[in-house]
Write a structure and sequence with these properties.
Layout lengths: L1 E10 L3 H12 L4 E5 L5 H5 L2 H18 L14 H11 L6 H9 L3 E4 L1 E4 L4 E5 L5 E12 L3 E3 L15 H5 L7 E5 L3 H12 L3 E5 L10 H13 L3 E3 L5 E5 L2 E5 L4 E4 L1 E4 L3 E3 L31 E3 L10 H20 L15 H4 L2 E4 L4 E6 L12 E7 L4 H6 L6 E7 L4 E9 L6 H9 L4 H4 L12 H9 L3
Parallel strand pairs: 1-2, 1-6, 2-3, 6-16, 8-9, 8-14, 9-10
Antiparallel strand pairs: 4-5, 5-6, 7-15, 11-12, 12-13, 17-18, 18-21, 19-20, 20-21
Helix pairs in contact: 1-9, 3-4, 3-7
């Protein structure tokens, strides 16, 4: 075994791990970054980027079809081969050479292999040839291993060799039909994409779509999917069997057949084989952290991104990574730690200002606290709704525009604590809402933030008019 010592060891070279490593190096620390698969991780190759590339062409096509003059010029359907080729450009054909060059240029030492903790501040790395090296950290080890698909306990599911999101986003040939289990973000996004790709889609969503969002979001997405021919089944499969003709799927009352089946029922921590037991933690568990991403009960082990189960979104993981990288540097060099709420070394926004876009048609963009959750946060909430179709800019964006906006207002503090927009092209409205929530901008001050006319952003003025002047 070879022995190597670094200031910081980061396990997992996805977007989150890369950001921790980069911040630590910029702060003057030496960093070893360990990865067993592709540098760039899930987001780059099997999640955010390829999934949105699969979805984008259909959204663009329908956007043109909704505008008189442009609609008449659209004469064809999606070119599947061209769409998949474009998707491949975003994954670099699943080649991480470009990401590796960035890591090297940043001054980060990349180690290929499977990493396992081996006691406090020690990590063993087993490469593809079975050779083991041992790395020791002077200051911190960071776990940024992400999460894996969670498979439900359904008779025959494993034997049917289901797709996970990885197979769905890296597909080379589109199946004639696709069954999807799960009505969350992945389920509805892949239903959107595969219907555009020409597949018949059956979506099993026992509890409806997009639970955790405002109710109207799931209802509007369900309506649109049904109009495009997606079959939504409000039941869970009880038995699944792959045959020579496809996959047979039974619920308690009905039977269905599809060419392939995708499981999109949540995530589980990717911690089953990283040596947690060697430092007194439980293999397979999510890692519980404080707001500086330091794992509870330790003074050296950090966990960032999906693995800490705070907000399973790439942008939130990168936000956590910046805070963690900077606080590791501060603690290592004896600089002051800014760990009060909204300080430089904490991820306060995880608790109250997490933005998320679901790339369906219509899009769903939300941030902060949903109306039904306000009471449990101790907030006396005013809920304000406005029909986006009444906004001049929206009617210019698309003929017969359909959409909905909602603000959740804290009556006591007179600030916005939650916002949801549903409609075509609403994703770009979200950051203004995020700024208003993070900045705790008083409603009275927002009256002076004048939206340009005629844009969809004019909905902000209409919402304020509905609230009324303080």
């Amino acid at each position: 075994m070879a022995e190597n010592t670094w200031d910081v060891i980061v396990i997992g070279a996805g977007a989150v791990g890369e950001n921790v490593a980069d911040r630590a190096v910029q702060g003057g620390l030496s960093v070893a970054l360990v990865e067993s698969e592709l540098v760039g991780g899930e987001c780059s190759y099997w999640a955010c980027m390829p999934s949105k590339a699969l979805i984008r062409s259909g959204l663009a096509l329908r956007a043109a079809q909704r505008v008189g003059g442009a609609a008449e010029a659209v004469t064809g359907n999606i070119d599947v081969a061209a769409l998949l080729a474009r998707r491949n450009t975003f994954t670099n054909n699943w080649d991480d050479a470009g990401q590796v060059r960035w890591v090297e240029k940043a001054g980060i030492d990349l180690r290929r292999g499977h990493a396992r903790l081996d006691g406090p501040k020690r990590v063993t790395v087993t490469d593809d040839n079975g050779e083991i090296s041992t790395l020791t950290a002077n200051h911190a080890v960071v776990v940024a291993t992400g999460s894996d698909p969670k498979l439900p306990n359904i008779s025959g599911l494993i034997d049917a060799e289901p797709w996970t999101p990885r197979e769905a986003t890296s597909v080379k040939e589109v199946p004639e039909s696709l069954a999807i289990i799960g009505g969350g973000v992945v389920g509805v996004e892949m239903a959107t994409a595969y219907r555009d790709l020409g597949a018949e889609v059956i979506l099993f969503a026992r509890s409806g779509l997009l639970n955790g969002q405002e109710d109207f979001a799931g209802d509007m997405v369900a309506k649109a999917l049904r109009e495009r021919g997606v079959t939504i089944v409000k039941a869970s499969p009880t038995r699944i069997k792959r045959t020579s003709h496809g996959i047979d799927i039974d619920t308690e009352t009905e039977s269905f057949t599809a060419s392939e089946i995708l499981v999109a029922t949540g995530r589980t921590a990717r911690t089953t084989d990283i040596g947690l037991e060697t430092v007194g933690l439980t293999s397979g568990d999510w890692l519980s952290v404080d707001d500086t991403m330091l794992t509870h009960g330790t003074d050296w082990l950090y966990a960032v991104g999906d693995v800490n189960h705070r907000a399973l979104l790439t942008h939130q993981g990168k936000y956590q990574a910046r805070a963690a990288g900077d606080v590791i540097v501060a603690r290592a060099t004896g600089e002051p730690v800014s760990d009060a709420p909204w300080g430089a070394h904490v991820a306060t926004a995880d608790h109250c200002a997490v933005p998320q876009v679901t790339f369906t048609d219509p899009e769903v963009a939300s941030v902060g606290i949903m109306s039904e959750d306000a009471e449990k946060h101790g907030i006396d909430a005013q809920v304000v709704d406005y029909n986006l179709g009444w906004v001049a800019g929206a009617s210019l964006q698309a003929d017969n525009y359909e959409g909905q906006a909602r603000l959740v207002i804290d009556r006591e503090r007179h600030v916005i604590v939650g916002a949801t927009f549903v409609g075509q092209d609403v994703a770009e409205l979200l950051h203004s809402a995020t700024i208003a929530i993070v900045g705790e901008v008083p409603i009275a001050r927002l009256w002076h933030a004048v939206p340009s006319y005629p844009t969809i952003s004019e909905v902000w003025l209409r919402l304020l008019e509905t609230i009324g002047r303080p």
